[in-house]
Amino acid sequence: MSPSILALDGGGVRGVIPLEYLLLMEEHLRPCTIHDVVDLAIGTSSGGLIALGLFAMLWDVAECSERFNTLANQIFRERRRSIFPLLQISGYKSLLGEVTKWFQWLLYDSCYDSQVFDAALKGAFGENRLLFGATRERSPGHRRSGLKVGVIATSISRSTGAFVIGNFNISEDSKNKYGKLYVTMF
After folding, report:
1. Are the CB atoms for 153 and 43 separated by under 8 Å?
2. CA-CA distance, 11 to 43, in Å (whole number)?
3. 149, 147, 145, 182: which is closest to 166 by C-alpha?
4. What is the pLDDT of residues 74-110, one digit of tens each?
5. 175 — phi, psi (to 5°)?
6. Residues 6+ positions from 125 with CB-CB distance below 8 Å
7. How far are the Cα atoms of 36, 53, 79, 89 from residue 72, in angstroms, in the given order?
8. What pTM does this model have?
């Protein structure tokens, strides 16, 4: 049987849309859950957060939806404050306003405050929780060849290309044999 892959696109607060779809899908799958039918889950941006919640933290879809809404309200509530507050023209988009927005993206590598983002993620996933990496064979929930989870990451201000952070090569013996998976995307 071919593996089943769940790809979750990003889009900030629009992450609620795939979660609603997954809730409907689970209704039709009962008594199975989404965890029972997916072999690889991979996501970008908010889709990556959803993939981590569902498959690294093993939240059910309803809990993931609630936690995502909380995260979205914390992270995407307001954009980073402008470094040029006097150049902001309220009420409509100006060319100067768009230029300052792009400059901020390059300067900070994000639209949103990374400190707010970090605090929200630590609150949702735990401060010391390892989302990727080898698990101990005797640890609770250990699955030798379980679900694979990946998140695609990149940097706006650096030409690093995109790369996949995942639990694909998690055992100690496979780390030396295969190394880490990096994918350059165009």
Report:
1. no
2. 11
3. 149
4. 877 655 455 445 444 444 455 566 666 655 555 555 5
5. -60, -45
6. 52, 53, 57, 131
7. 27, 13, 12, 26
8. 0.68
